[in-house]
Design brief:
The protein is 73% helix and 4% strand. It has eleven helices and six strands. The radius of gyration is 50 Å and the shape is elongated.
Length: 425
């Protein structure tokens, strides 16, 4: 060392002492960091785990890097120790000693033998500052693997275990209401979630780095967060199943009341249809030349399915009863609406006849009030319209025309000349 002379100006005694103090502090910082890395829980977990995939490959590199770090640190320690010993020989070192100290502190005085740590066979030389920078780089890359793996292991397995416990409770609840794999879609979904959580946990434990999402623009060790997409998907699926199971449980609690309401709705629909059929016979007897729609029979199919629902309840087949009740409630309301619409359509001709009768009587009252009740034309047209409306079967079209003719005649009569008393006819 020193054959070519020290790099740059020769350091004086104060500069040497300050450099040794700074390098000593850096040595202490590097040592503390390496010991902390050695004792890091994430490193111990990585050493004891059966790793796969990305984590296995990166940890193998990290282990080699950590071994190299200690080799670099040992070389750094030895070089710093030699420089300290040289400085300790004399309180006031001469120029030759200062030149050698300058060479040791600023020159490439640190020698790392080739092949000592499984790397290239060529030896490496560093300045003390350069070696600190190199150790800092290697330490950061190694720490990133350790911290990232530890962050994933600290976050995901515990959450997966909690979700698995919730899954177990939901499965027990599902079995209590007959929701089982192969018998109900929710039972199949629970099996699928169980398999997914089991596979997810095994993969997280063996390959945690595959579940890390780095933060954009961050170079800090562990900069980012665990990737929880698969966990979140499983949690949402379990929540959907849990709500479905709760709906089935609710069916168990209120099924009797719902069946009673269904029977009442279908009974009202049946009565309404019976009323519509009776009204249709009346319309056909009393109204001529009118299109009267046919009336459907009672909802037999719905009654049969209602009986099936009662059987499901009797045998505690809640998972089958739940969707059946939902469908029956919807269809029963639709059936009642159809029955009411059928009754309205069937009785429409009677409503038209009643409206014509009311209109005819209203005009007659008006004519009488204005003193034209004895008009022969009005009497004739009124009698004609009345006879048509009160006869059976009633021709609605002809009766409507007769009412219109009476209205026109009344309007013409009432708009005629005034009498001596000033009244308008």
């Amino acid at each position: 060392m020193g054959v070519a002379g020290p790099p740059g100006p020769v350091m004086d005694r104060d500069e040497v002492d300050r450099a040794l103090a700074r390098l000593g502090a850096e040595h202490k910082a590097v040592e503390d960091s390496l010991l902390a890395l050695q004792d890091h829980a994430g490193r111990r977990l990585l050493e004891g785990a059966e790793l796969t995939g990305t984590t296995r490959d990166r940890w193998q590199d990290a282990e080699r890097t950590i071994t190299l770090l200690w080799a670099y640190f040992d070389a750094y320690t030895a070089a710093l120790h030699d420089a300290r010993e040289l400085r300790a020989r004399r309180r006031w070192p001469g120029r030759e000693e200062l030149a050698e100290l300058t060479d040791r502190l600023r020159g490439e005085s640190v020698h790392v033998p080739g092949g000592a740590v499984g790397r290239a066979a060529l030896a490496e030389r560093f300045t003390l500052d350069g070696l600190v920078r190199r150790m800092n780089e290697l330490y950061a890359s190694s720490l990133d693997v350790v911290v990232t793996a530890d962050a994933v292991w600290s976050a995901l397995p515990a959450r997966i275990d909690l979700l698995a416990a919730e899954l177990g409770r939901t499965r027990s609840l599902a079995h209590s209401v007959g929701v089982r794999p192969g018998e109900h879609p929710a039972g199949d979904e629970l099996e699928s979630i169980t398999a997914e959580l089991s596979a997810l946990r095994a993969q997280v434990v063996s390959d945690p780095l595959a579940f890390w999402r780095p933060a954009q623009g961050s170079s800090a060790p562990g900069g980012g967060r665990p990737d929880t997409e698969r966990y979140d998907t499983a949690a949402r699926a379990l929540e959907d199943v849990r709500r479905e199971i709760e709906a089935v449980l609710q069916v168990r609690q209120d099924s009797e009341e719902r069946l009673l309401r269904l029977r009442d709705v279908l009974s009202r629909a049946d009565r309404t249809l019976a009323e519509a059929r009776a009204a249709r016979g009346e319309v056909l007897a009393k109204i001529a030349a009118s299109e009267v729609p046919a009336v459907s029979g009672p909802p037999v199919a719905l009654q049969e399915r209602l009986s099936a629902a009662a059987e499901y309840r009797r045998h505690a087949l809640w998972h089958r009863l739940s969707p059946l009740l939902d469908a029956l409630e919807r269809e029963a309301e639709e059936e009642l609406l159809r029955a009411r619409e059928s009754l309205t359509a069937v009785t429409a001709p009677l409503a038209v006849r009643a409206e014509l009768r009311g209109r005819l009587d209203a005009y007659k009252a008006k004519v009488a009030r204005l003193g034209a009740a004895e008009d022969p034309l009005l009497i004739e047209r009124y009698d004609t319209a009345r006879r048509m409306l009160w006869s059976a079967p009633c021709d609605l079209r002809a009766a409507e025309q007769a009412v219109l003719r009476y209205q026109q005649a009344a309007a013409e009569t009432l708009s005629g000349p005034r009498d001596g008393g000033g009244n308008q006819w």
